Amino acid sequence: PESIDPTSADGERIVRALSLATDSGGPATLAALRARAEQAAREAGAQEQSLQPPAVFVDLKPRIDGYFELCRAARSIADAPDATRFDDLVRAALDTFDPGVVASTLATLPIARPSRDLVLPLTDRVNPAYESALERFAAEVVTPTLGATNRLTEADWRQVVDQFTAPPPTGGAASDIADLRSAIRLALFQQNLLRFANSFVSCPDLYHADRRAAFEAGTLYVGGYAMTFAVKVANRQFHAETARTSNIFVVYASVYRDAPPAYEVAVPVTNGTGRRLFRGKQGMFVDTVGREWNAEIVDIVVNPIGLMEAVGRPFRRLGEMVTGRIDAVTRDAEAAIDARAASVLSGTPAPAPPASQPGSPKAGPLAGFGSVATAGLLVAAVTSAIAFVTSTLSGVPWWHIAIGVGAAIVAVALPAIVSALFKLARRDLSIILEGARWAMNSPLRLSRRQARFFTRKAPRRRHRPRRPDKTS
Question: What are the φ and ψ backbone dihedral angles of 247, each rounded to 5 degrees?
Answer without folding.
Answer: 60, 25
